[in-house]
Design a protein that fits this description.
Length: 226
């Protein structure tokens, strides 16, 4: 992973959502925390071009998120806070295959790669299931498989354990830990980021802590008053 923010800021109208930021990310496991409205989701969406910088620039593995926006989308996959909203097809296997069909791959290769992703995530039994019948944890895993089937090197997850029960949270957390891809996890679930290599804390649009999880989480508790 090689992500570079250079004097990057984001404004929405008169509101400065992210203050000027210069930063290099190279670790394989990175967490991002902060109170609601702190700027953490804006920061994460800058990485794959879902949000464009108002000033400055962002580069992902040598690609500019504005000039090379299509290539950046292929390089960095994004799982939204409500992953069911990005499941397009009615059947699980069809949804995972969707991105490959858009690339014009042969049917046999699509089938093989889809089956391989289902097996990798331990959800082969869900292949013929309707997406609206999935549990919250299963939906998260299918969304991950649907994004990763096209081969992005980086996966960004926005609140991946949001509203999951303990069993589903554990299933999703273990899956994220086992991913081969570099990951950036945005979360309020502090337990999910205790083992990351680097943890960032945003507050009121500013990066106020950046380092080991233990120290960054301590600073978060100070800011949150708990």
């Amino acid at each position: 992973m090689d992500i570079r923010f250079t004097d990057c800021s984001v404004s929405f109208g008169e509101r400065l959502a992210l203050h000027p930021l210069t930063l290099v990310l190279s670790e394989r496991r990175i967490g991002v925390i902060g109170l609601n409205g702190s700027g953490k989701t804006t920061f994460a969406r800058l990485i794959n071009g879902l949000v464009k910088p108002t000033k400055g620039r962002v580069e992902v593995n040598g690609l500019d998120t504005v000039k090379d926006d299509r290539a950046v989308l292929a390089e960095a996959g994004f799982i939204f806070q409500n992953p069911q909203h990005q499941l397009i097809m009615p059947i699980v296997s069809e949804d995972i295959a969707f991105g490959l069909k858009n690339r014009g791959l042969p049917a046999k290769e699509i089938s093989l790669r889809t089956e391989a992703l289902l097996a990798r995530f331990g959800i082969s039994h869900l292949g013929k299931r309707r997406v609206h019948e999935l549990s919250g944890g299963e939906t998260q895993l299918v969304a991950m498989a649907s994004v990763l089937v096209t081969g992005p090197k980086i996966l960004i997850l926005d609140e991946p354990t949001n509203q999951l029960d303990l069993r589903n949270r554990r299933m999703v957390a273990e899956t994220i830990d086992a991913l081969d891809e570099d990951t950036i996890v945005i979360t309020h679930d502090l337990g999910l980021v205790e083992g990351v290599e680097r943890l960032l804390l945003f507050h009121e649009g500013k990066l106020i802590a950046d380092g080991a999880p233990s120290e960054t989480i301590r600073r978060y508790h100070e800011v949150a008053g708990c």
